[in-house]
Amino acid sequence: MKPWLKPLLEIGPVAIFFVTNARFGLATGTACLMAATLVSLAALWLLTRTVAIMPLVTAAFVMIFGGLTLYFDDALFIKLKPTIVNILFALILFGGLLLKRNLLPRLLGSVLQVTPEGWRLLAWRWGFYFLFLAGLNEAVWRTQSTEFWIAFKLFGTLPITIIFALAQWPLLQKHKLPLPENP
Fold it and tell me: Hey, is 114 helix, strand or coil?
């Protein structure tokens, strides 16, 4: 798969949500988010024959909270979804660390090759980052308009996450495993 395609498939549903909400309202935007999420998962599956756990969990929550948003005609449910998903991811990472079963190598081990200490530090950092995102989502949706919150999901959360991920580069370099030598 082309390197740009996977992020596009993961970000696409949020972008579609942003555009359709602006043009047709929250109910249509939510319905389109739900449909685009399913299309994105199907495309990932067709292209790779696998779908990572994080997109699956996120999709399940999009379906549940999107469905509740549509059923009750209340934006509260779709606004709570990022908070709950981010707290869940943080708890999974922290729980794995406390049980001495770091889950990050299972999720990213095919992409990153780092020492066990590097994985441990990375899991703590991402766990706290997910808690930060949950708090940030709460602050934004509780103090801003729905339109601002939706725009922030695309133009705020995404750049912040990219910056955070890039900020992990020194840790990854410090703890990277040496490449195997060719005989």
Answer: strand
